[in-house]
Each structure stands twice: as C-alpha cells, then as structure tokens.
Write a structure and sequence with these properties.
This protein has 303 residues and is mainly alpha-helical. It has one domain: Up-down Bundle (Na+/H+ antiporter like fold). Helix content is 79%, strand content 0%. The longest helix is centred in the last third of the chain and has 26 residues. The protein is globular.
Length: 303
C-alpha cells in the first residue's frame, strides 16, 4: 500500500476522467444542453490552443528530422484503419449505428492525443505533426473511402467538414503557436500548460458521455469499439517499434486515439445525425484508454 499515493499521482488524469464520465452519465442534462450549443467545438479549440502553447521551440526542426517516418506512418494508418473500421462495424446489427463505427476508420488523430503524448513524456512536436497530417488526410479520403466501403452511398460534405476543422483545429493551432513566441515563460503559463489539457479533456469526456443513450443495441457497438481500440493500439505499437522513446510514444498514441468529435461530424454529414450515436461512447472509451496508456508509460519512465 506504500505505493498507493504514487499510483494515484501517475493515473490522476484517468481518475478525473472516470469521475467526470460517471457524473455525466448519471446527470446528463447539463452536458446535453451545453453540447447542443457547440460546447464540444469550443472545448476542442481551447485544447488545441493550449496544446500549441506547449509545443517546444524546436518543433519545426524535429518535424523536419522525422518527416519521412511521419509520412510513412500517416500512409500506413490511412490504409489500415479504414479496413479496421469496416471490420469492426460488421459486429453491429443496426445499420444506422454501424455507419457510426464505420466512420471511425476515416477519422484523424484525436486532438487530445497530443495532450496524452505530453502526459507520457513523448515528443509533442511529432504528435502535433501527425495530428495535422491525419486531419488533412481525413478531409481528402473520408468521402471516397466511405463510398468504397459500402456506407450507404451518401456523399460526405467535404467542404463543411473542412470548414469545421479549420475553425476548431487549424486556427487555434496557429494562434497558439503565435502566442507561444510572444508570451514570456512564467509559473502561470507553466501551470496552464500542465493543467489545461487535463481539464479540457475531462470537459470533453463529460460532454460526450452525456450524449450516450445506452440500450441493448449498444452491446454490439461496444464490442465493435473495443475491437477498434485494440486494433488501432496494436497498429500503433507495431509502427512505434524500433523508434526512440519520444517519437515512438507520439506514433503509438496518435494512432491509437482517433477523434470522436470529427468522426461524429463525418458520420452526420454522410449518414445522418442518428449514426453519430456510437461516437459518444467511443470518445469516453478512447480518452480513458489513451490517458491510461500515457500514465502507464510515464510511470515506467519515472520509476
């Protein structure tokens, strides 16, 4: 029991997220009210901005140094994950819910994955590069891939998705990078960079958990989501093999964590709002899973 306080410190992010998720499931109305007023987009944008503030000054050099490896990773992920999403969706009997799982395969890396990379003491510059690259790829391939996979024949509103991504990802990222050079280092800024991502991830989990409507139909959805999380994590481990610790952890976490909010937008554009139901449950699962993995990696590094 002597290690209990240390265990709590190492997994404090997971504990916070679990408590918030439980509260949101028990009392969903406040979260649903906020989600209906675009609170998810606001929280995502704030998370991207704070993440950008914490990107190290040598990020550009790091990205240039790893460019071939990062491009190769993006290419493999863009091929394998759509197939994995299709495979997992076969476990869902309800056609509408199946389309939501299918959309996970074309989703970009989760915005919160960069925060998870930081928690794991990984290379946040490489994680940011993978996030940006995967987001651009998602816009380019979502429509054709969903059409080829037999997702219902509806065209994805690429323009709408692109505009949303520009607003909640690209713009906050650029603002954060600009502010990073202008704001002097201070205890307040350091604390913001440490606590901001954890707080905002918890807020996001609360918002998406409040949208989950559990029923018997979700048993197949849950099985499909577990298959997708395990498969994407396995792919991340394979791609990270042989890399240095910082880059390997960035590759692992950005591959294992796909963006539930953007996936929901893609699903809604392609198949209708009802198909986005599984993405709320996936958001809770993947953020808890990603932070748990990050906490484990950090504990192993510091032990």
């Amino acid at each position: 029991m002597a290690d209990a306080p240390r265990l709590v410190r190492d997994y404090v992010e997971v504990l916070v997220v679990l408590v918030v998720a439980a509260l949101a499931l028990l009392v969903p109305d406040p979260g649903r009210w906020l989600a209906d007023r675009h609170a998810v987009d606001v929280a995502l944008a704030a998370l991207v901005l704070i993440t950008a503030l914490g990107i190290p000054a040598g990020a550009a050099a790091a990205l240039a140094r790893h460019r071939i490896r990062l491009l190769a990773t993006l290419g493999v992920v863009a091929v394998v994950l759509p197939f994995l999403g299709w495979l997992a969706s076969r476990l869902v009997a309800d056609e509408v819910l199946r389309h939501g799982v299918l959309s996970l395969g074309v989703a970009p890396a989760e915005v919160a994955s960069v925060a998870a990379v930081g928690v794991a003491d990984g290379d946040t510059a490489a994680g940011s590069g993978l996030l940006i690259g995967s987001t651009l790829l998602a816009v380019l391939v979502a429509g054709p891939v969903l059409s080829l996979s037999g997702g219902g024949g509806h065209a994805v509103d690429v323009g709408g998705v692109l505009a949303n991504l520009a607003l909640i990802v690209a713009l906050p990222l650029l603002v954060g990078l600009a502010l990073r050079h202008r704001l002097a280092s201070s205890p307040v800024r350091t604390r913001l960079e440490e606590l901001g991502p954890v707080v905002l991830v918890a807020v996001l989990v609360g918002l998406v958990a409040s949208e989950v409507h559990l029923s018997r139909a979700y048993l197949g959805v849950l099985a499909a989501l577990v298959v997708f999380v395990v498969g994407s994590t396995g792919l991340g481990l394979a791609l990270a093999r042989g890399e240095d610790r910082g880059l390997g952890r960035a590759v692992l976490l950005t591959t294992a964590m796909r963006d539930f909010a953007i996936a929901a937008g893609i699903a809604t554009s392609a198949f209708g709002v009802a198909s986005a139901g599984p993405l709320g449950l996936y958001g809770v699962l993947v953020i808890i899973w990603g932070l748990a993995v990050a906490g484990f990696l950090r504990r192993r590094t510091r032990s």
